[in-house]
């Protein structure tokens, strides 16, 4: 089963009050999306370019977003990195990190946790 949004509303102002811990953990997740898209064995030239661009954005702006979450330019570039990583990942396949998480999601969905 593939679940993907038909529409994404990407508004950096909505992220300005996120706590540092949420900024850091979700930022690392989106960095993982970008790395998995870039290193995936079934990657395409387009997904490679998008993944690499997302890695560059996130590597530059994630530390700044954790340090100063109220900077709108930083938040805008982090969201751009997250969006580009998602587009890249949607055009490839998961890597090892998210593949390992898939069984855990199924267990949670079916109520074992
Ligand atoms: Fe993820």
Automatic annotation (TrEMBL):
Coiled coil: none
EC number: 1.1.1.1
Enzymatic class: oxidoreductase
Domain Fe-containing alcohol dehydrogenase-like C-terminal: 23-104
GO MF, one example: alcohol dehydrogenase (NAD+) activity
Keyword annotations from UniProtKB, A to Z: Oxidoreductase
Pfam families given in the database record: ADH_Fe_C
Name of the protein in its database record: Iron-containing alcohol dehydrogenase
Lineage: Bacteria, Bacillati, Bacillota, Bacilli, Bacillales
